[in-house]
Amino acid sequence: MDIELRGITKRFGEVVANEGVNLSIRAGEVLGLLGENGAGKSTLMNVLCGLYRPNEGEILIDGQAVTFTSPADAIAAGIGMVHQHFMLVPVFTVAENVVLGVEPVGRLDRLDRAKASAEVATISRKYGLEVDPDALVETLPVGVQQRVEIIKVLFRAADVLILDEPTAVLTPQEVKDFFEVVRALRDAGKALVFITHKLNEILDISDRIAVIRGGRITGEGLPRDLTPKSLAEMMVGRPVSFDVAKAPFNPGRALLEVRDLTVLRDDDAVAVDHLNLTVHSGEIVGIAGVQGNGQSALIEALTGLRRAAGGTVTYDGTDITHASVRARHRAGIAHIPEDRQKSGLIPKFTVAENMVLDTYYDERFSRGPSVMWDHVAEKAAQAVLDFDVRTPSVYTAAGHLSGGNQQKLVVARELSRETLLAIAGQPTRGLDVGSIEYIHKRLVEARDTGDGVLIVSSELDEILSLADRILVMFKGRIVAEFDTGAGPVDKGAIGLAMAGAAA
Ligand SMILES: Nc1ncnc2c1ncn2[C@@H]1O[C@H](COP(=O)(O)OP(=O)(O)O)[C@@H](O)[C@H]1O
Ligand SMILES: [Mg+2]
Description:
Elements: E1 3-12, E2 15-25, E3 29-34, H1 41-48, E4 56-61, E5 64-66, H2 71-76, E6 79-82, H3 94-99, H4 113-127, H5 142-155, E7 160-164, H6 172-187, E8 191-196, H7 199-205, E9 208-213, E10 216-221, H8 228-236, E11 254-264, E12 270-280, E13 284-288, H9 295-303, E14 310-315, E15 318-319, H10 325-330, E16 333-336, H11 340-344, H12 351-355, E17 366-367, E18 370-371, H13 373-386, H14 403-415, E19 421-425, H15 433-448, E20 452-457, H16 460-466, E21 469-474, E22 477-483, H17 491-498
Parallel strand pairs: 3-8, 3-9, 6-7, 7-8, 13-20, 13-21, 16-19, 19-20
Antiparallel strand pairs: 1-2, 1-4, 4-5, 9-10, 11-12, 11-14, 14-15, 17-18, 21-22
């Protein structure tokens, strides 16, 4: 089955999410759809799977124009989508979820469980989608839940499978297995659309690649004719450099020493479990791990946002285990938080106000009870220049900037003052390659000038390109350590540790 999208335009009020998109999807082929956050990938595929009606354009299946008024129409035509956020019922079994809405019915109108399980097992075997049909979905790791979503689509006899950023929730090993499934589906004659913002993945799995930027297709081609560089340029709209230039590794004294740290979540479950780590001056320590292994709680405890339930945190020789956020900040700890909207910025405040959120009270900006706004604006203007924050003015509300520029604003505020230690959680999540490149550069600069830098990221490639030392966090503990100075590190070994193999 071949599909042709012709001139698809989709608007949300003022926002043009897709504009005049032409794209073909063919049986027996993996089409890689690459684009940065907000480029319009999900919208385009939601049009194809019947969730949205396009404002303009048409969809042709094997040359025939079709109109979908609901996802049920698209499924009936053989098009199924696995969404970024799964839509399974946690308290149902795998088989119950798969057959939901199209149940095989037995005697007395009861769900025929045995039949449902058997059908799931058949599909599972055929494509290597390993899963227990009778397991409760809520007990399954996300990687397995994803297989359930795929089986669900296959159960509905889809010939076209749209996979929206499927690897975001997977460890590197799981990605490998997942790619095997994708290839099996393709070899069985299915058409697949694989959505991602990751350059190496798209080159690995695709038979053909299309790049989307600002709602338009900006490039198309075969993997053999494309490189990460050329793809990045199509994705961002300008040349991008990948090499993070770093001065030779020359660590100094221990700046941050974490001993036996235990941190509880809000529900009192253990998030960080007797964890030990050290960050030296002049080094970048990267914590790799699949999301949800205690990384957020660790950062919160280190920056004073969450109480330590046990252990000690020493910074530059002083015990700060129970110090306030402000005390840590004043002592020279910069914090680039994981969630810039929630704890990095106040979206309604201007760029200038956000620039001094945590320093407005100091003598540079305040005289007695009054803030000297002209000084603030001056400092903000300089930081905006130094850190390449694209904003109409320093009086623009921070919430109006793009994600990348909001993050650069946070980085500008945190790194444009005297610091000794920078702690960054997912510093580039959801950002375009250009902003990523920039933020990486500034973090490396902080390290080269003698700061200690601690980065937590679930993007292994980010950790690999930045860190001097890599720690792997699993279930609240550091389970493995890799030294990047001692030659190339074994990505497979890191991936295994991320999956808990070393624990
Ligand atoms: N339901 C919606 N309402 C309003 N705007 C939306 C909606 N869905 C997406 N958008 C906007 O459309 C653009 C494209 O979004 P999306 O398709 O989700 O991008 P991607 O999947 O490539 O990250 C973005 O600017 C986004 O904010
Ligand atoms: Mg999306």
